[in-house]
Structure formats: structure tokens, C-alpha cells
TrEMBL record:
Keywords: Iron, Iron-sulfur, Metal-binding, Methyltransferase, S-adenosyl-L-methionine, Transferase
Top-level taxon: Bacteria
Sequence ranges assigned to domain Radical SAM core in this UniProt record: 69-305
Molecular functions per Gene Ontology: 4 iron, 4 sulfur cluster binding; metal ion binding; methyltransferase activity
Region (Disordered): 1-28
Entries under InterPro entries matching the protein: Aldolase_TIM, Coproporphyrinogen-III_oxidase, Elp3/MiaA/NifB-like_rSAM, HutW, rSAM, rSAM_sf
PROSITE patterns on file: RADICAL_SAM
Identification of the protein by name: Heme anaerobic degradation radical SAM methyltransferase ChuW/HutW
SUPFAM superfamilies given in the database record: Radical SAM enzymes
Pfam families per UniProt: Radical_SAM
GO biological process, one term: porphyrin-containing compound biosynthetic process
Length: 469
């Protein structure tokens, strides 16, 4: 497909040598693209193409951001609860064991942080379209504290009238009283980390409830018909073969949730799962080719059931499920962050709140935001975010890409070759000016995103972020 010429980019200073090209943008042509297009999946690192702000500068930069005007686009808020009842084997994000005496103290620190930030100009009155309470395990908090937090978030932040308010949780500690109290407080979307309905698979990963107990909990939650209910499943776990995975999908469909997330297991070094597999205590997880087959099976089964694929990893059974937070954050939406371990973004900057709980609490006692890290983007980050957001929905508008990519003239042939390689490898199809990903392309979407971003880097040269030192 020949691309229309775009306007000539402005002349830039000579750039330093470019990084070597990734295998990410060179798919192999084979008769089995979902299993053989690449030899590995490329993770998307949100800090790439960004420059760290020196620690001595962070406080001054933060003060400047606080006085800035809110972004004109759709905005998000993320609230982090860094406690879990136990460390699930597959998880690389565990921080603090939950103890009931921590609940009131932490929630009060969160409320104080929200109220301080609510007065900042950067929060303003521009509406927040999706708010996500994640973790960790937010539903581990005591009912009175969790409800108090939800009520303060609703009263202090400028939430849109149709704001998506998601509560992430797990079955343990989430009893009927707590569920009903959260719904009454205003939660309109609940995402439950089930991972698998198979009791053996669940319990060897540290999930305490059995498969039938998980089914009953989800069924009771759905029966309330008071909020969108989303089930999170994971594929590729040890002992989760095609038969187990097919039962997981069928069980989820039979329960009738509003949304379904399916995530591929990523076994990180240092996690309990990695150690258990390395020491021979658990069977190895699925191979890359086996993961591809599990993903393919889910796509076929959900499409056959009439579900709509909202993103590469998310499906909806009805219009009540929007998956708004996840879609917007992947497209680079401005995000206000609260809580120990939270991450957010304002303008050209992304920032992280202290993941060390004592440090976070001490900062709160001193009346300051516990910012411990900050990155600055270059002027091309909006284009990278747009590319990521588009391909996350398996679609790329070529005409819009040409309009946004002012430096395309110099690399048009490279872009055409890249997109053509996707088509030849069975990862994408052309429909006029629209490129859509096939099921195989969706499975390998992170590779395709990384490849297109690299083509962008070769087109525009090295980032021109001003040196903040």
C-alpha cells in the first residue's frame, strides 16, 4: 500500500547513532503466524524514550506541574492500595502483607493526599472520566475504611457524571456486606482476579478459594445487577492445558459477566513462581507456542459466543462494559495518582509515588506529595501514545497517522515495508486506509507496537527532550 506524502519535518540537530533495529518489526512469514511470527514477545516499557528528572529537581518540577492547567482530553485517576493477604506465586508486584490495623491508617493518609491535591490547579474542574482503585488488593481494606475512601474520592475529585469507577479485588475478604457497601458508595465496575476456575491451578498459585467457591462468588456478584462485573483470567499457568483453559473460558461465559480480561502469564525472575519452577516444585508454564494456542482458543470461543473484542486482551458482552480506564491509559491519557506505589502523568511528565510504605506515610505527615521518581517525555510522545492506543484496539488509521507523523517523508519507504511485512506474515489486513490486526496480530501486538515505534524513532531521530540538569 502506498502512503500519501506528508508535510516536510523541520530541520533538527544531528542525532547520535540510532539503536539497533529490534526483531520486533521483522515478522517471519510462515503457515502458522500466531505461533511462529516471532521468537519472543517484546514487552512494552513505558519509560522508553523518556528522560529521568534528577532527584534534586523533582520538587521544583512538581510544584510547577501543580500550578499547570488540566489536560483538555479525557483524564483518569488511579488509587493504589499496596496490601495483599498473601503473595500469589505469579505476581511480581507484591509489596506489603495486609493487617487489619493498617487499614484505617493507610486510608486516612490516602484521604489526606486526595484532599491536598484536590486544591491544585492541575486537578481543577476538568472532568475525570475513569477512576481505578487497584493494588495490591483494595478489597482487603476494612469495609468502613474502603467506603470512606470511595466517598471522599467522589466528593473531592471532579468526576464526570458517567465516570467509570472500578474497584479491583479478589474473593478473599470481599464478603456480602463489603460488596453491598461499595456498590452503595458509588462503585459501578468491579474487576475480580480469578486467574483460573480450576481448583488445582488456583491453589498452587496461592489462591485460597476453590474453583466452585469462585464460581459462586462471581454468580452472586452478577446477580446483584448493580455494576459491570469483569472477570480476570490468566493463560499459560502451570498445569493449565488446553482442556483446563477451555473450561475456564466456558465457565466464565456461563456465569454471564459484563467483561472478560485474559492475560498471558509473564514469569518474571525473582517471583515465587519462577523459583518454584526453577526448583522443580511446579511444572513449567506454557511455552510461547502453547500460549498462542490458548489465546487463539479464547478468541474463537468468545467470538462464537457473540462477545465484542474491546482490546487485544479484553472482551465485553454488553454495552455496560466500556473498559475505559485501560483503553485511555494505554493511549497516554493524563492520570492523577494517589497512594503508595501509584504512578501518574501530568503534561510532559510521568511520576511515581513512593512505593515504600513508611516513606509514603512520613511524607503525608509532613504534608507533601511523596514523589520519588519522575520522567520527562519528548515532543513525539503523543504520537507514540496514539500508535499504542490504536494498535491496542487492533486498528491503525493510515490517513490519521500521516497527518500526525510530520517527519514521515524521510522514512515513508520504511513504514510501507513494515506494514507490508505485517500483511505478508498474516498479522494484518488492509481495508482501504485502515489496517486491522488479525488474531495472530493481536497476540503479537506488543511486537508490532514496538516495531512501529522504532520506525518512528528512525524517522524523527533521537528524542529532543531538553536537558533538565
Amino acid at each position: 500500500m502506498t502512503l500519501i506524502a506528508s508535510t516536510r519535518s523541520k530541520r533538527r540537530p544531528a542525532a547520535p547513532p540510532q539503536p539497533p533495529r529490534l526483531d520486533a518489526d521483522l515478522p517471519r512469514v510462515s503457515s502458522d503466524p500466531i505461533a511462529e511470527a516471532f521468537t519472543s514477545r517484546v514487552p512494552l516499557m513505558p519509560w522508553l524514550d523518556k528522560r529521568p528528572v534528577p532527584r534534586v529537581e523533582i520538587a521544583d518540577v512538581w510544584r510547577g506541574l501543580c500550578d499547570s492547567s488540566p489536560d483538555s482530553g479525557k483524564r483518569l485517576a488511579y488509587v493504589h492500595v499496596p496490601f495483599c493477604a498473601n503473595h500469589c506465586l505469579f505476581c511480581g508486584f507484591y509489596r506489603n502483607k495486609y493487617r487489619y490495623q493498617e487499614s484505617a491508617r493507610y486510608v486516612q493518609a490516602l484521604i489526606d493526599e486526595v484532599r491536598r491535591d484536590a486544591d491544585m490547579q492541575c486537578v481543577g474542574k476538568a472532568p475525570i472520566h475513569a477512576l481505578y482503585l487497584g493494588g495490591g488488593t483494595p478489597t482487603a481494606l476494612e469495609t468502613v475504611d474502603l467506603v470512606r475512601l470511595i466517598e471522599v474520592l467522589r466528593s473531592e475529585l471532579p468526576l464526570a457524571a458517567d465516570c467509570e469507577l472500578t474497584l479491583e479485588g479478589r474473593i478473599l475478604h470481599f464478603d456480602d456486606e463489603k460488596v453491598d457497601a461499595c456498590l452503595e458508595a458509588g462503585i459501578n465496575r468491579i474487576s475480580i482476579g480469578v486467574q483460573s476456575f480450576d481448583t488445582k491451578v488456583r491453589q498452587q498459585q496461592g489462591r485460597r478459594a476453590s474453583g466452585p467457591e469462585a464460581e459462586r462468588f462471581i454468580a452472586d456478584l452478577i446477580a446483584r445487577d448493580s455494576a459491570a462485573v469483569v472477570i480476570d483470567l490468566m493463560y499459560g499457568l502451570p498445569d493449565q492445558d488446553q482442556a483446563v483453559w477451555s473450561r475456564d473460558i466456558d465457565t466464565a461465559l456461563s456465569l454471564g459477566p459484563d467483561g472478560l480480561d485474559i492475560y498471558c502469564l509473564a514469569m518474571f525472575p525473582g517471583t515465587p513462581l519462577h523459583r518454584a519452577v526453577t526448583n522443580g516444585k511446579l511444572a513449567p508454564p506454557a511455552s510461547l507456542a502453547e500460549q498462542a494456542r490458548l489465546y487463539e482458543r479464547a478468541c474463537e470461543r468468545l467470538a462464537g459466543a457473540g462477545w465484542h473484542q474491546v482490546s487485544n486482551s479484553h472482551w465485553a458482552s454488553c454495552t455496560r462494559e466500556r473498559n475505559l480506564y485501560n483503553l485511555l491509559i494505554k493511549a497516554g491519557a493524563e492520570t492523577l495518582a494517589f497512594g503508595s506505589g501509584a504512578g501518574g502523568s501530568l503534561g510532559d511528565y510521568s511520576y511515581s509515588v513512593d512505593a515504600d510504605l513508611p516513606g509514603y506515610l512520613q511524607a503525608g505527615r509532613e504534608g507533601r506529595k511523596a514523589i520519588t521518581g519522575m520522567l520527562r517525555s519528548d515532543e513525539h510522545q503523543p504520537l507514540r501514545d496514539w500508535v499504542t492506543g490504536m494498535l491496542e484496539t487492533a486498528r491503525l488509521d493510515i490517513a490519521e497517522l500521516l497527518r500526525r507523523w510530520s517527519g514521515l517523508n524521510a522514512r515513508r519507504a520504511g513504514l510501507e515495508a513494515l506494514l507490508s511485512s505485517w500483511q505478508q506474515a498474516g498479522l494484518a489486513e488492509y481495508h482501504g486506509e485502515i489496517v486491522t490486526l488479525t488474531t495472530a496480530g493481536r497476540f503479537w501486538s506488543t511486537n508490532l507496537i514496538a516495531g512501529l515505534k522504532q520506525e518512528l524513532t528512525h524517522s524523527i531521530g533521537a528524542p529532543t527532550v531538553p536537558d533538565v540538569t
